[in-house]
Each structure stands twice: as C-alpha cells, then as structure tokens.
C-alpha cells in the first residue's frame, strides 16, 4: 500500500514539475516577445526622429507582429498559415484580439498595441499621408477604449477615459487640416467622422450606466454596435448619422464642441443646412468663463463685457444659417459646461442664442440617441399595458385598428411627455437635516426654504390629478417612490462638489429618518440602491444643481449626471444660486406653459417661455434670476 502511495505521490510531483517548468518557459516566451516588441518600437521612434519614416513604419509593424504573436501563443494558434493571415492586416488582428480578454501582470497588452498604432499614425502624418494617419488613430482609439472595460469603480473609469483624450484631439485636428485637400463628398464624410470621434470622447461611462439601467428596467440593452465595423472612417460617418436620427425627426439643430489645448472645434448640423466643422481659438477662454461666473451677481456691466467676449469663442456666424426659432441642442465640452449659452450673442448680430433658438443640452449625441431609444422602449411598454384600458381603447377592436390607434397614441405621447404624468413626487421645504462640511465640524441645521412650500403648493394645483409626496415624507419613502414616478420635483437645498474626491457626496436635502440622514447623494444614485428611474422629468429647483466635477471625458459629474445615469429622461438643473422667490415664480410659469398652453409646447419650449415671462418683469429683468436653469437630456 505504501509503495503504491509513493508511486502516485512521485508521479504527482513529477507532473507538477513538468507543468511548472512548462508554465515558466511559456511565460518566458511571452515576456521575450513583449521585450522584442518594446525594443523595436523604441528603434522606430529614433528612426522617425531622424526622418527615416519608411524604416520607422517597418520597425513599428514588426513590433506589432510580436504583439500579435503573443495573442497567438495565448490562444494556441500556432499553425503558420494562421500567423500569416493574422499578420497580414492590423484590422483583422484587432477584430480577433478584442474577443479575447488578455491580461498580463508584467505589461499592459492593450496599451502596448495602442502605442504601436499611435506611432504608425504619427509617422504617416509626418509623411503627409493624412488619411492613413487617421486610419491608425482609429485603431489606437478603439484599443484604448476597449481596455476601459477593465476599470472597476467610477474614478478608474473616468481616469481611463481621460487618457484617450489626446487621441481624439489629434484625430480632430488632422481631420480639420485634411478637409481643404479633398473633394466635397469626402469632406462631408470626414466632417461626420470627426463629429462621431468628438462624440466618443465624452460620456462613455454615462452611456454604460444608462445602458445598465435600461437593461434592468426593460430587459433590453442599448442597440449594440458591431466591433467588426467600428474600425473605419465609413463607420464613423455612419455612427454620427445614426445618432442624428432623433434630431432629424423634429427638424432640430446641433451645436457640438471639442476643446483642445489650443483650439475650440465646433460642428453645426441641421437638416436644411447640412453639417459644418469649424475651428476657433481658445486663448483666454478660462478667464472669460470665470469672469461670467464672478459677475453674474456682482457687476452687470462686467457681465455684459464677458458675455460679449464669449461670442468669439462659442457663437460662430454660421449659426445665422439655421432656421429661426427652431430647437438647438448644445453639446458642450470641458470648461464649456459652465457657459450660459442662451445669454451669448450670435456673432455679428444683436440676438442671443436663447432668443433665436429653443435651447436644450445633451451630454453627447450618442447619449441623446440612447435616451430617446429608452424613452421609446418605455412608451411601448406603457401603451401595451394601456390596451386593456376601456377608457382609452375598445377591448373588442381588431388588431389592425389597435395597431393604428397604438401608433397614433405613441406619436402623441412621444410629442409631449405631459400625457404620461401619473405618479408624481413633489418635495418642498423638507424638515431639513443637519449638515457638516467636515467630519470634525459641529453639525448645522440647514435653514428652511419657505418659498419652496409655496412653489410646491402652486405646482400641485397646476398638476391637478397627482399622487404627491411632500415635505412630510422622509428620504427613505422618497427613495422608495422615485422609481415609480413620472415627474420628480425637488424644491430644497443642495450641495455640489467639484473635487473628484468629494463629487460623489454632492447632495439634495430631504427629511432625515432612522434609516437615512436626509442627504440623497450622487453616490446613492449611482450605487443601485434606488431602482432605475422612469421619470420623464426631474426638476432640481435648488442652488447650483448642474455643478460638480468638470471633466473632458464625462462633462460635469454631479447630480444631473447621476440622475440621467439612474434612468431619468430629462433633468432641469441650475448653473448658479437663484433667489427663492425668483425660482418659485419661474417654476410656476414653466408648469403653466407646459401643462396648459393650447399649442402643446415641449418641455424645452415651456422653459424658454417661462424665462421670457421672467425677463419682461422689471424686478426679474436681470438674467441672474432666470438664465441659470438648463434642460439636459431629451428635449
């Protein structure tokens, strides 16, 4: 028995040693391939600096081939014909590699791939082969964006997204340089491609969060894109046009931005005008934006001067080519998220953007398309539930009649969200919680907002038939009811933090209870603690609720960002503090227009009318009383 045991033990040890040495040899092979790849890439850099571009391309391609061989070794694809097929095309290689989740403790595989693609792109640019350069930047961007999926928490995801920003900046700059050298048809394609690349530069994290909320609510995810098609200018052209579908539906216009270190790139789109790309300087932009923020309350003359300066940065003359009074969706970038666009005069005119257009804001074109898509999923589910409601549909009607009626009601509901208001959360002047700025500070009870009581009572009367939660309800009850609500209105205090270490603590004040401290935070909205929202509109009638951490990749991360992430279709938020009385009057005017104007205005149109009502009143003439509030999301 002992002899037999020794035999099996010795055999196990022998097999373990064989496996160990095989594994060691295998890892050594992988590390040698990576080392050879790294050396060749360094050689290619030196060759490029010396102006030997063709040699640099050859060295970089060899460096890439070593990286591809790592993939082949990992997947046991050893036959020589498979290697030749893989090494023949960078695109084919990447198509296969993205389906294989490869991690290595010694080096970042995807970052190494991206460095090679970026190197090739830079060399082709120096050879003045701009289209080839753009092709390789597409591969580099895709590789790094794909690697973002490994990031775990929000801060890691945002940091990963910020690292790709330089690729977007270079791609957009080269595209703008290329345009004068190509024919008009190609120009349009490359303008759309650059618009799509600018759109990819932002809101990747937000899009994933909205997708998660959608999947949980409806069992669907946002329309998946095929990796096989992403790696080309033609696909970027398609991507931009696909995202513009919802805007074409209601003849809207788009003004989208990308802010680089030296320039501001913009894209203007409308169905009647087409698409245009331009470039403006950004020297002094940050100080001008700061002047606007500093003087919104302090000095009206200095405010007007700062707003006039902003015209040169963000209101190009081509805005005059767009249809008067139509919708304008503004997609800011970076520091431009702090700009009150509606107050800025269009270049060469005495008319402001807010006077000429009905303005709303979107985090990105893709996010807007995603929100519209989610809204239609919600409408379809809602209308299917209504089929048995005899007050709306006759149960005996034929399927064909039902389908026709379904479509007509679908379009009606899609036109205006007021038809979808059922369960509503109104919170005004809650029993305020105690607030501590720092852990060691003594708690301070937040002061009441007495005018918000009047605000909520007036809105309640305008709504007429609603299920309402008010200041007597605690944070626990409100969090439980929010996912069921089609309208959520908070008239209370709020706090926004711009520091990345504090932004998740940004809050809305509610009544505390034994389970919750009375502060509904960004972190809670993102955590999944609250079920996904279905709100047509969330109104943050409080101070600086559109504030937060300004990033290039995700815009402003704060309360409005978190609410969209949680499933809300739209958010109204404020850029600065507005006195309670003015806020109350603006909100009452907004709801009156939205719910009772005979021409059935959209939410964006209703907000514009409310702002105009305020501006013609002598006591509210100054824009500090009404221009702070923005509509973000579906118009």
Question: How are the secondary structure elements laid out?
Answer:
Blueprint: H1 2-49, H2 53-74, H3 80-87, H4 90-97, H5 109-126, H6 130-147, H7 154-163, H8 165-178, H9 184-200, H10 204-218, H11 233-243, H12 245-249, E1 253-259, E2 263-270, E3 274-281, H13 285-298, H14 300-314, E4 327-331, H15 353-356, E5 358-361, H16 365-386, H17 399-415, E6 424-428, E7 434-435, E8 444-445, H18 450-463, H19 475-481, E9 487-491, E10 494-495, E11 507-509, E12 519-521, H20 522-527, E13 537-540, E14 549-551, E15 555-557, H21 559-565, E16 570-574, H22 580-596, H23 603-615, E17 629-633
Parallel strand pairs: 1-4, 4-5, 6-9, 9-13, 13-16
Antiparallel strand pairs: 1-2, 2-3, 7-8, 10-11, 11-12, 14-15, 16-17
Describe the model.
There is one protein chain. By secondary structure, this protein is of the alpha/beta class. The protein has helices spanning 2-49, 53-74, 80-87, 90-97, 109-126, 130-147, 154-163, 165-178, 184-200, 204-218, 233-243, 245-249, 285-298, 300-314, 353-356, 365-386, 399-415, 450-463, 475-481, 522-527, 559-565, 580-596, 603-615, and strands at residues 253-259, 263-270, 274-281, 327-331, 358-361, 424-428, 434-435, 444-445, 487-491, 494-495, 507-509, 519-521, 537-540, 549-551, 555-557, 570-574, 629-633. The strands form 5 sheets. Strands 3-2-1-4-5 form a 5-stranded mixed beta sheet, sandwiched between helices. The protein has a 5-stranded mixed beta sheet with strand order 6-9-13-16-17, sandwiched between helices. The chain has a 3-stranded antiparallel beta sheet with strand order 10-11-12. Strand 4, helix 15 and strand 5 form a beta-alpha-beta unit. The protein is globular. The termini are far apart. Mean pLDDT is 81; it is low at 7-23, 78-87, 221-228 and 387-406.
């Amino acid at each position: 028995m002992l002899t037999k045991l020794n035999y099996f033990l010795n055999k196990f040890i022998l097999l373990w040693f064989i496996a160990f040495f095989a594994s060691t040899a295998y890892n050594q092979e992988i590390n040698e391939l990576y080392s050879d790849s790294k050396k060749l890439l360094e050689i290619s850099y030196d060759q490029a600096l010396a102006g030997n571009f063709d040699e640099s391309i050859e060295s970089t391609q060899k460096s890439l081939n070593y990286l591809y061989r790592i993939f082949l070794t990992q997947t046991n694809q050893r036959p020589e014909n498979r290697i030749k097929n893989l090494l023949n095309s960078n695109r084919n290689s990447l198509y296969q590699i993205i389906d294989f989740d490869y991690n290595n403790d010694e080096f970042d595989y995807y970052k190494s791939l991206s460095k090679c693609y970026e190197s090739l792109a830079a060399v082709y640019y120096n050879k003045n082969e701009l289209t080839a350069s753009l092709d390789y930047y597409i591969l580099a961007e895709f590789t790094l964006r794909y690697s973002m999926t490994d990031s775990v928490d929000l801060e890691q995801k945002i940091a990963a997204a910020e690292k790709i920003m330089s690729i977007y900046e270079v791609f957009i700059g080269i595209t703008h340089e290329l345009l004068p050298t190509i024919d008009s048809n190609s120009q349009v394609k490359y303008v759309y491609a650059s618009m799509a690349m600018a759109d990819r530069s932002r809101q990747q994290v937000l899009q994933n969060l909205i997708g998660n909320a959608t999947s949980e609510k409806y069992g669907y995810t946002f329309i998946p894109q095929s990796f096989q098609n992403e790696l080309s200018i033609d696909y970027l052209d398609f991507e931009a046009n696909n995202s513009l579908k919802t805007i074409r539906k209601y003849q809207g216009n788009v003004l989208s931005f990308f802010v680089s270190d030296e320039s501001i790139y913009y894209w203007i789109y409308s169905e009647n005008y087409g698409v245009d790309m331009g470039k403006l300087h950004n020297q002094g932009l940050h100080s001008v934006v700061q002047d606007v923020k500093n003087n919104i309350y302090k000095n009206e003359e200095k405010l007007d001067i700062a707003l006039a300066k902003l015209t040169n940065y963000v209101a190009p003359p081509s805005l005059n080519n767009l249809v008067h009074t139509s919708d304008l969706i503004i997609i800011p970038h970076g520091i431009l998220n702090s700009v009150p666009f509606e107050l800025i005069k269009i270049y060469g005119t005495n008319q402001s953007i807010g006077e000429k257009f009905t303005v709303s804001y979107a985090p990105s074109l893709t996010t807007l398309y995603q929100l519209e898509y989610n809204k239609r999923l919600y409408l379809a589910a809602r209308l299917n539930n209504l089929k048995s409601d005899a007050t709306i549909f006759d149960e005996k009607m034929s399927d064909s009649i039902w389908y026709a009626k379904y479509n007509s009601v679908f379009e009606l509901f899609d036109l205006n969200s007021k038809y979808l208001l059922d369960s509503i959360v109104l919170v005004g002047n809650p029993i305020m919680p105690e607030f501590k700025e720092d852990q060691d500070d003594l708690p301070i009870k937040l002061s009441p907002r007495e005018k918000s009581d009047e605000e909520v009572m007036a809105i309640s009367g305008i709504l007429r038939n609603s299920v309402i939660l008010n200041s007597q309800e605690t944070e626990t009850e409100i969090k439980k009811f929010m996912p069921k609500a089609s309208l959520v209105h908070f008239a209370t205090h709020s706090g926004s933090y711009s520091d990345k270490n504090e932004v998740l603590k940004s809050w809305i004040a509610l009544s505390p209870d034994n389970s919750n401290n009375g502060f509904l935070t960004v972190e809670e909205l993102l955590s999944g603690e609250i079920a996904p929202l279905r709100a047509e509109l969330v109104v943050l009638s409080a101070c600086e609720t559109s504030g937060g951490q300004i990033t290039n990749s995700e815009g402003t991360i704060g309360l409005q960002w978190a609410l969209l992430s949680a499933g809300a279709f739209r958010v109204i938020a404020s850029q600065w503090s507005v006195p309670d009385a003015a806020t109350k009057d603006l909100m009452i005017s907004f709801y009156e227009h939205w719910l009772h104007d005979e021409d059935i205005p959209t939410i964006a149109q209703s907000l514009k009318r409310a702002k105009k009502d305020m501006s013609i009143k002598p006591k509210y003439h100054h824009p500090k009383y009404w221009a702070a509030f923005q509509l973000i999301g579906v118009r």
